[in-house]
Amino acid sequence: MRVLGPAALDVLVARLRAAGCVFAEEEAALLVDEAAHPDALEAMTVRRVGGEPLETVLGWVAFCRRRVGVGPGVFVPRRRTELLARTAVDLARAAGRDGRSPVVVELCCGVGAVAAVMAQDVPGALVHAADVDPVAVAWAARNLGRAGHAHVGDLFGALPAALRGRVDVLVANAPYVPTAAVATMPVESRAHEPLVAVDGGADGLDVQRRLLAGAPAWVRPGGCVVVETSLDQSPRTAAACPPGWTTRVLRDDDVDGTAVVATRPA
Q: Is the pTM of this model over 0.85?
């Protein structure tokens, strides 16, 4: 539905603004554009006014200049994670310069936003994504289509054994919010996104440590691990990387993104 009269549009904007939507005009335009008919617009508006994230109401999130599918009950990819995706793409392209197909894995993949970007931007890459949440993995499978494989399970336990020792780029936006800080997150996130996607334990690094400890069995010599973290936590994330691996911290202030890259010696 692409046409709504000025009076009706004003009412829609007022409803969104009253519900606390800061960018009510922009959200109204997106809802109108996405709705197929007036009843669909009303249903979507009720969901948004009720506090559901705009992205899951629309059914997509803008990520790396494309639309990634999302739905109710999943973690919505943030713009800060675009740093993770861009870095993983660059590393995967470098790994494939010898003519072979790079093997790339996204763990804690959620809806598979990073894996989908890698599948599209690194032609020929062998892409796998995995998450403990089956709802998220169903979306990841949809976003990847035939360009990759999505698996349900806990970290490396979800992956095919044939990938052991073959991974060129292992990328993860593992949960890194300290448990005590979860309560300070926006209500929209706490009420509508799974806790397992954000709660990283007492200091926020429980899942990161497990992932980094398991990386040597799966990442090939010369391969890399890329992990999203916060600027404050980045020194501890780097310190948790496998001994002997070189580490570097990347920062993009434009998207408020921070990532640690750990490279296994060749």
A: yes
